């Protein structure tokens, strides 16, 4: 049981490049979410999903796209990277909604945009 | 999103001492969760509080939910070096799917 797996762990991009952060969970959780963590700002919700085919915006969705074609996977896409997107990204999943039960986090993906 | 204030931002503690970190919300909460993140690690769930005035203990950690369900506290007794890390509160409001995190209290311990 691997839990929540994120790839890559580290990535450096140039401004304007695109990339996808991968997230997979093997706990059969319906709820999945993406957070970004910046110094002094805690974790901010980017997008979340309550099941396959259903996604919604969080606090800071601009510049990011998501899709949920399967229960297991919830990729986060940066269409045109900007320096302001330099951050640590965490994927998290839960049996229930994010506020209704324990969130299980992946180990994080550290992204630097030059 | 919900406004959540966590104080203090930094806590420097002598090993063996007690300390408390606080989490305050501008709105009434359905529940509150606490997470711990070790340096370089990912957040790990500690506990969830649901009832007004609820108090829960985990060994040296005591969690409390305010009577008005607008604030919470985490008290650690006899701090150890293993307590180093950042403690986040996370608030659940009217939308069960959105969990709002505080900025965290970063704890360092002097041996």
How would you describe this structure in keywords?
heterodimer; A: 114 residues; mainly beta; 7-stranded mixed sheet; 11 strands; B: 111 residues; 6-stranded mixed sheet; 5-stranded antiparallel sheet; 0% helix
Structure description:
The complex is a heterodimer of chains A (114) and B (111). Chain A is an all-beta fold and 114 residues long. In chain A, 0% of the residues lie in helices and 49% in strands. Chain A has no helices and 11 strands. Chain A has strands at residues 4-7, 10-13, 19-25, 31-37, 43-51, 54-57, 64-66, 76-78, 87-94, 104-105, 109-113. In chain A, strands 2, 4, 5, 6, 9, 10 and 11 form a 7-stranded mixed β-sheet that branches. Chain A has a 4-stranded antiparallel β-sheet with strand order 1-3-8-7, with no helix packed on it. Chain B is mostly beta strands. Chain B is globular, with a radius of gyration of 13 Å. Chain B is built from no helices and 11 strands. Chain B has strands at residues 4-7, 10-14, 19-25, 31-37, 44-49, 55-58, 61-65, 71-76, 85-92, 99-101, 105-110. In chain B, the strands form 2 sheets. In chain B, strands 2, 4, 5, 9, 10 and 11 form a 6-stranded mixed β-sheet that branches. In chain B, strands 1-3-8-7-6 form a 5-stranded antiparallel β-sheet, with no helix packed on it. The A-B interface holds A 31, 33, 35, 40-45, 48, 50, 56, 58-59, 90, 92, 96-108 and B 1, 6, 9, 30-31, 33, 35, 41-45, 48, 88, 90-93, 95-104.
Low-confidence stretches of chain A: none
Tell me which protein chains meet in the greatest interface and how many residues each side has. Answer: A-B, 29 and 28 residues
* Low confidence ranges of chain B: none
Radius of gyration of chain A: 13 Å
Q: Helix amount of chain A, in percent?
A: under 10%
Q: How many helices of chain A?
A: 0
Shape of chain B: globular
Indicate the proportion of strand residues of chain B.
Answer: over 45%
The total count of strands of chain B amounts to 11
- What is the SS-derived class of chain B? mainly beta
How many helices of chain B in DSSP terms? 0
Q: What's the N-to-C terminus distance of chain B?
A: 39 Å
Going by helix content, strand content and strand pairing, the class of chain A is mainly beta
Output mean pLDDT of chain B.
93
| End-to-end Cα distance of chain A | 36 Å
Level of helix content of chain B? Answer: under 10%
């Amino acid at each position: 049981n691997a839990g929540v797996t994120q790839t890559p762990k580290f990535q450096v991009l140039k401004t304007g490049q695109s990339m996808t952060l991968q997230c997979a969970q093997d706990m059969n959780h319906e709820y999945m979410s993406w957070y970004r963590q910046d110094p002094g700002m805690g974790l901010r919700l980017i997008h979340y999903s309550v099941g396959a085919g259903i996604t919604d915006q969080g606090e800071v969705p601009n510049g990011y796209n998501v899709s949920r074609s399967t229960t297991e996977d919830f990729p986060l896409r940066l269409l045109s990277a900007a320096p302001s997107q330099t951050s640590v990204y965490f994927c998290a999943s839960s049996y229930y909604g994010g506020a209704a039960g324990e969130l299980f986090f992946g180990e994080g993906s550290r992204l630097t945009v030059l | 999103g919900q406004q959540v204030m966590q104080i203090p931002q930094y806590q420097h503690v002598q090993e063996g001492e007690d300390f408390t970190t606080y989490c305050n919300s501008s709105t009434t909460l359905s529940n509150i969760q606490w997470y711990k993140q070790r340096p370089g690690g990912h957040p790990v769930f500690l506990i969830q509080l649901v009832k007004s005035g609820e108090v829960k203990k985990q060994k040296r950690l005591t969690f409390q939910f305010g009577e008005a369900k607008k604030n919470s506290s985490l008290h650690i007794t006899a701090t150890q070096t293993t307590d180093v890390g950042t403690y986040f509160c996370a608030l659940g409001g009217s939308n069960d799917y959105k969990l709002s995190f505080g900025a965290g209290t970063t704890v360092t311990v002097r041996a």
